[in-house]
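Quick one:
INPUT:
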């Protein structure tokens, strides 16, 4: 087949204080028109550097390409070597013929412009259209990536959207000019399973219709099985193995590829087990000992609203019903997972519990203490017992502080450690999450996305809290590190009696981690119960739809039909609107379903 992109003997280096560092070494692969090549490997293996090198974006971070070629065939049939092209030619290619979806949507969007204007700007930069025509096309693109109320979203700023919605905006920007090659760097990381299935189907359809090729970078092997034609496995900047997707999954040749595939969480692997299960312990048959459940956190009738204001006088005209009469409890040493589509209120529920967002009404009780009644100083003291791991690790870390200062900061603030013992404690923490002591002097931008998330996990563990709200805590991690972190969280729970409110869209990881599961839809819990009951016998139609959308890490079972086109209704209601109180039916022991 003709080669649309041909990467030959690519080498990318960065200058560091200790000398040149080779991030990509002698890498070669090719992509044909309409083909999807998946680039997989652990965090820090050079996947993202490879992707950015294609558009010469590594130069902005101090990277150089001392050797190798990146040949690309343009729309007019002319060839260009992107590794040695002048800036003028690169600017005409970027965003038009080659588009890129970056890993972290918040850093890809300009916070001072509306999301609609940012999509329209891409269209105007490469095509001779009016502002009005660009705006119409931008609204249509927002609609195509399944964001509700596209006209209203067009005028919103990035901070007003959920993480999943921001990622869909970035995808809309990348697709704006119908590129010949789409480079997707973890494009579905922040998306829930239903939207992920729709986005994968969308880009696959566009690929067939327009002959668009894809370089798909991901750590989700289920997504690889769903979308890829060929797979390139990377480790330490070098290619380990390359093969068509079916033989690679069926008969991987290299030990490293076998390790990656063995680390993939598979939905259904926990059948027959009641509690969480570490990776590598599937063969154990003994059930966890039954124990009395001692409540640690009690949430009752939690309501959180966000005002919608309009006009010059900023009149309060409506409310976003983000969390609507949510009730649940978490026992000591227990994990309750909160799942649902992006925008359903999962993250807002977690932040409301910690009072990072102020609830309107309800009660949140931690060990008998009403958190909503505490003043500022008492709440600060109580926060030693409850920590959060945020969804976006780059935004959660201070770019001016080193890794050591980030992890040590909670200990210093609360006066728990100092001097050499402080460093010893920080070193022990980072080692437990898979980092090394010599990385402690680096700044956040010097880490990969997965490494930054591990830093955030180490920081959350530093105060030895009783409750951790993990908001997509492992979504940015590759499968092998994800398995290690899930094992770590389970081990810490067993050793220290930690409790987790585990917010995630990865249903296979949720199945692995959870004692109990709560499914949210439109700000309300629609089903809650033991993990085995919710996954093994889902009663609510929405729960069944979520489970059916999970990609299977098996190319032989690739989904051929389009997933159901779901779209969340608007959560905005006029001031004074009161929804009927939720009524739940008991369908099994501790298993409740919202009555329709």
């Amino acid at each position: 087949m003709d080669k649309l992109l041909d990467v030959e003997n690519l080498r990318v280096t960065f200058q560091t204080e200790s000398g040149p560092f080779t991030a990509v070494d002698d890498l070669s692969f090719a992509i044909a028109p309409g083909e999807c090549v998946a680039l997989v490997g652990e965090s820090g293996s050079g996947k993202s550097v490879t992707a950015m090198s294609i558009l010469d974006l590594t130069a902005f971070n101090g990277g150089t390409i001392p050797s190798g070629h990146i040949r690309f065939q343009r729309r007019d049939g002319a060839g260009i070597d992107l590794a040695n092209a002048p800036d003028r030619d690169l600017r005409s290619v970027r965003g038009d013929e080659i588009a890129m979806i970056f890993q972290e949507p918040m850093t890809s969007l300009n916070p001072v412009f509306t999301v609609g204007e940012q999509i329209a700007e891409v269209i105007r930069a490469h095509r001779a259209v009016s502002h009005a025509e660009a705006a119409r096309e931008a609204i249509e693109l927002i609609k195509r990536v399944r964001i509700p109320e596209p006209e209203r979203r067009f005028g919103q700023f990035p901070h007003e959207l959920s993480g999943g919605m921001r990622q869909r905006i970035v995808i809309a920007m990348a697709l704006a000019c119908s590129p010949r090659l789409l480079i997707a760097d973890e494009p579905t990381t922040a998306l829930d399973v239903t939207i992920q299935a729709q986005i994968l189907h969308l880009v696959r359809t566009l690929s067939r219709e327009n002959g668009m090729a894809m370089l798909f970078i991901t750590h989700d092997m289920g997504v690889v099985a769903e979308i890829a034609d060929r797979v390139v496995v990377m480790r330490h900047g070098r290619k380990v193995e390359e093969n068509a997707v079916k033989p690679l999954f069926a008969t991987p040749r290299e030990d490293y590829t076998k390790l990656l595939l063995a680390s993939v969480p598979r939905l259904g692997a926990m059948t027959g087990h009641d509690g969480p299960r570490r990776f590598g312990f599937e063969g154990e048959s003994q059930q966890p000992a039954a124990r009395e459940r001692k409540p640690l956190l009690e949430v009752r009738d939690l309501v959180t609203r966000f005002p919608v204001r309009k006009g010059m006088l900023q009149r309060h005209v409506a409310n976003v019903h983000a969390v609507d009469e949510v009730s649940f409890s978490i026992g000591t040493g227990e994990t309750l997972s909160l799942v649902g589509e992006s925008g359903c209120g999962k993250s807002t529920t977690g932040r409301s519990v910690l009072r990072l967002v102020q609830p309107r009404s309800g009660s949140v009780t931690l060990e008998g203490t009403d958190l909503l009644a505490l003043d500022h100083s008492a709440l600060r003291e109580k926060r030693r017992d409850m920590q959060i791991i945020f969804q976006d690790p780059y935004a959660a870390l201070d770019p001016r502080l080193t890794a050591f200062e980030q992890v040590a900061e909670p200990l210093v603030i609360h006066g728990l450690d100092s001097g050499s013992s402080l460093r010893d404690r920080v070193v022990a923490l980072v080692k437990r999450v898979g980092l090394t002591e010599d990385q402690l002097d680096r700044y956040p931008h010097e880490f990969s996305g997965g490494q930054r998330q591990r830093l955030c996990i180490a920081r959350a563990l530093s105060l030895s809290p009783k409750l951790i709200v993990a908001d997509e805590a492992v979504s940015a991690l590759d499968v092998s590190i994800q398995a290690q972190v899930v094992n770590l969280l389970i081990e810490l729970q067993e050793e220290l009696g930690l409790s987790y409110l585990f917010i995630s869209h990865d249903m296979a990881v949720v199945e692995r981690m959870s004692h109990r599961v709560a499914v949210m839809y439109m700000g309300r819990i629609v089903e809650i119960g033991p993990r085995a009951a919710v996954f093994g016998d889902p009663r609510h139609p929405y729960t069944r739809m979520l489970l059916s959308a999970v990609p299977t890490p098996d190319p032989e079972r690739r989904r051929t039909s389009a997933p159901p086109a779901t779209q969340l209704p608007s959560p905005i209601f006029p001031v004074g609107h009161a929804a009927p109180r939720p009524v739940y039916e008991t369908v099994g022991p501790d298993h409740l379903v919202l009555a329709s």
